[in-house]
Amino acid sequence: MLRPPPSSDGIVQAARRPLKIFASDPLAGRTFGNRVRIDVVNEPLQEGPVGSRLEVIDYDGAQKCFYRPVNLDHPAVLLQGGLDPTEADPRFHQQMVYAVAMKTLENFDRALGRVIRLGSSSRRQSSAYPRLRLFPHAFYGANAFYQPALNAVLFGYFRADAADVGPNLPGQTVFTCLSHDVIAHEMTHAIVDRLRPMFLEPSNVDVLAFHEGFSDIVALFQHFSFQDILREQIQRTRLDIRSPTPLVQLARQFGYATGSGKALRSALDEPGTSLSDSTIEPHQRGSILVAAVFDGFFKTYQRRIADLVRIATGGTGTLPQGDLHPDLVNRIATEASRTAQRVLDMCIRAFDYLPPVDVTFGDFLRAMITADFELIPQDESDCRGAMIEAFRLRGIYPAGVGSLAEESLLWENVESRLPPLNSDATSLVGRAFIQAMHAFDATWQPATFEPDASPTEFQYAEAGEDYEVDVNRELAMELHAYAAANAQALGLSTKFKIQVRGFHPVFRVAPNGRLQIELVAQFAQIDRHRSALLGGIPFRGGCTLVASSNGRCRYLVSKPMLDASDPRHRSMAEARLARQEDYLQMCDLANAMTPYYTAADAELRMRELMNFANLHRG
Amino acid sequence: MATTKNAKATAKKVAAKKTTARKTPAGASGRRKMFVRMYDVGFGDAFLVRISRRNGELRILFDCGSIQASAAGGAMGNVVRKIIADVTDADGVARIDVIVATHRHKDHVSGFADDAWNAVEVKEVWMPWTEHPTDPQARRIRNLQSNLALALSAGLAAAPAAVDAAAQRAHSVAADLVANALMLSNDGAMKMLHSGFSGLPERRFLPSKADDGRALVTAALPGVRIHVLGPSRDPELIRDMDPPKGESFLRVRGAGLGGHGAAPAPFVPEFMLTQSVGAWTFSPDDQAAIEGAGGLSELAVAVALDKAVNGTSLMLILEVAGTLLLFPGDAQWGTWMAALEDPHWRELLQRVSFYKIGHHGSHNATPQTFVRDLLPRGCCAMASTLTRKIWPNIPRQELLTGLIAKAADVARSDQPSAATARAFKVAPGVIEATVLL
Fold first, then answer.
1. From CA A230, how far away is CA A213, in angstroms rounded?
2. B240, B334 contact by CB (below 8 A)
3. Cα–Cα dist A116/A131, whole Å
4. Backbone dihedral angles phi then psi of residue B290, each to the nearest 5 degrees
5. Beta strand ranges found along A53-198 (DSSP E)
6. Residue B94 DSSP code
7. Residues of chain B with C-beta less than 8 angstroms from the C-beta of A90
8. Quick one: which of A408, A541, A420 has its CA closest to A478?
9. Which of A151, A579, B73, B168 is 20 to 30 A away from residue B89, measured at CA?
10. A330 to chain B nearest CA, in Å?
11. DSSP code for A6
12. CA distance A345 to A384
């Protein structure tokens, strides 16, 4: 966000650091424009590179050796704006992984209006890690995955399948860490896991698919922010960016090299695919979410360039033969990249309006619409309308809404039904602001690389609970009192302990310059009685409460518990349980291991699904 | 059936019919009947369907194989002799109209390795389209599955002895699954199916591209319509038949067929270091975790291979005069979902009178929605199964109780004494169900 402190001779440090990466997978491009220089936030780096939130460790588990780490602060590297892209030097791979990971993180920081912490404190299954670790060449395999227990992202490398190779050479070594899309996808998994750790528990058919689909969305739209590539592609494809170019096909190299013949997850292959009950495989289901968001983006983009096309064609709508005018291409590239950034921000901002557990695609749509509406009430390009329509065409319908009009898709407004967040609101909010300031302001950060001086201030693990909470202990107690007092209205049960899962102040700037400040609190409860019946996953409930800066509650996103007092909440809870049981049955049917489980294994079979390594295996 | 009624009816029938070379089913009571005879092969399948006709009977044999014989049924050789005796006509010639091999798992085809089959006259042999000798897609799938089975088998044999009980169990389950899948094209059983038997049978690989979803009729089975519900040729569903590729070869202790031994070094040695030099948070535990990161366990690969071969199962509905018999082989998720989603097939599934319980009664070969919502009441269901120690969940109790809750007559080959419904006739090593047309 801000600059690092001035160097020892008083020279002001740059705010951004340029680094070169492969824009698409190296195989797609001996074409001009595949090498791109991106800017990431400048921070003091050690060899590795090791920054304040990310750490690139180049250990190869198959060869059992380390590779030479890169020093991105070396003068030679700085002069060139980063090492030149090459597949042969592992130091470039480390640079690329760091650059794309930082870029993804920056998108989230900016859209969410706060600094996301990637360290994890010591828990039952793992020790404390101050930073998220990235292993560019962790293992031999056609896979890359985020490993929560290690707080690390592991990238594999492999030899291209000799028989069915696509554009790769037979026997060529393919590195998953050289694909921008794969890095962005895996980083998103890691970040989503920070924001909503319970989205790893497959309590309904959409949960794992959401993880996959959302990660693909971030990778895809982040790709669109590279204007140089866009410009070249637009020139080549003459305005229809929907043609299957490397820009749109995710991780094309990955797909070809594993012999499946096409990109592993391609959002736009089947124009007519809509959500069906029998699509339960997370990638397939997630790709429908991606397709819906892309359709919404494309519609908005078409609307935005409509006037440019009119001007360029003089109203006829047919473009002249041959190359497009470079000015026109520039304008269109700008529009496309701005629309992509808007959609990406809208998707990420939605996170603060998502429930803490049991997410569905419909919830995501409502969260997107509500978040965007709050920030930009008057939407000139009707981005929200396009998104709603796109979701409808893909068969994604939110539950419990009266219609698909924007007003009915907003989350329920609870201003009249809930008292303000805390009677001592000003002090609560004041404390929260001071904590947020610490994170934003560079001068507050310690000069050395030690992890946060008091990590327990923000994160600690409750006894008996596997997931960390993201809230200061003091604030947690006050919020707990509030939740306990209003359990009925929040849809929580009085029988189970209420856990305060998170509390953040959020700062956002609207396009018209208006500053928006919100407070977001998350509460969760857990019912372990049915865990054995549900394959090892408990029945969880909770809610996200969004309040304005003066403590007045605005929106409630509730996942009620079974013994909530309000009958409407109770029936919602029963529907949730039925959905969880249905999903369990579908998984049993689809899982090849089912007949071979022992009774003990069978009780934990749903927990087996919570494994990104298996999820990502082609 | 009451014996007096039997005797009267038989007398009538015998007087009216002229004798033929073929054996006719006894005890005809005016209504035509179909018999489904389940042979006790232990853990495996061997079902003989006999459809009575005016001048003889039509015979269809669904599978003949086992991976573990039962005490009551005896060795595979005995069962084969029994089957051949049951299909031998008065003139001493054994005849079967159609032999169906649902998929190439040992527990479905091992019995065909017996030379005695060469004397049996067969009109047609049906196999899934993945068995087609020259179709390139079929070849690809077959090769993938066979290669993986061989690689896994070698890998498991070479693996060091497991230490703890869980690992030992995983190893034995994996070994078992792989042994079941080691049915290569040069195996005696496959050779018999593709080129054996007498009478120069026609081989059909279903569904054929020309069929296009319509019912199949053939001169070998007059009056019978065959609906082929699977395996699909749809590329999306075919993915189920693809076992994990690539890295699974290499993980299997470097014993792959392709000569992929140890992982090749990706960079020149100048870049390689033995010690950590960076300010990295990296402990020896992490190191061990990373080294174990890539690749599936042998069990996971074996299960995936099992699923892939099961996915090639031929799933048929025989329709005789409006009565439907469902033989799904070992079809699992992909094939079942496609069947349940197609409105025409869904309608057929709602009228099934006989159901051969898929995959020996395992949980994921019979969707709950099928039993709960589609299966009509009072149908007949048979499972050829055996509870093996390493697979305690086959057959699945909940499935059997679910069927019984639908007032179905259920019979298990390993519990003949429990087959007390009127539709069943029990003899040593055989349970026969009668389905009225």
1. 23
2. yes
3. 11
4. -65, -40
5. 54-56, 59-60, 65-67, 132-140, 144-147, 152-159, 173-175
6. B
7. 266-267, 271
8. A420
9. B73
10. 40
11. P
12. 13
ipTM of the complex model: 0.76
If DSSP codes are grouped into helix, strand and coil, which group holds residue A9? coil
* Torsion (CA) A153, A90, A223, A232 in degrees, nearest 10: -170
Residue B285, token pair as written in the block: 């535990």
Q: List CB contacts (< 8 A) between B362 and chain A.
A: 594-595
Q: What is the CA radius of gyration of chain A?
A: 24
The predicted-structure confidence for B9-22, as pLDDT tens digits, reads as follows 454 444 444 444 45
- What are the DSSP calls for B146-211, one per residue? HHHHHHHHHHHHHSPPP-SHHHHHHHHHHHHHHHHH---TTSHHHHHHHH-SBS-PEEEEESPTTT
Closest C-alpha among A589, A602, A609, A616 to residue A278: A589
Interface test with A, best of B67, B286, B301, B357 (most A CBs within 10 A): B286
| HSE of A464, CA atoms in CB hemisphere, 13 A | 5
With contacts defined as CB-CB under 8 Å, which chain B residues touch A277?
Answer: none
CB A225 within 8 A of CB A150: no
Mean pLDDT of A420-432: 67
β-bridge mates for residue A428, sequence order = none
Choose among A200, A246, A191, A235: nearest CA to A53.
A191
For residue A506, which phi and psi values (nearest 5 degrees)?
-125, 130
How much of chain A, in percent, has pLDDT values that exceed 90? 29
C-alpha A519/C-alpha A433 separation (Å) is 10
CATH superfamily of B31-136+183-238+309-436: Ribonuclease Z/Hydroxyacylglutathione hydrolase-like (3.60.15.10)
Question: What's the whole-model pTM score?
Answer: 0.84
Residue spans of the domains in chain B: they are 31-136+183-238+309-436, 137-182+239-308
Which residues lie below 8 Å from residue B100, measured CB to CB, with a gap of 6+?
Answer: B60, B61, B62, B63, B125, B126, B127, B314, B316, B327
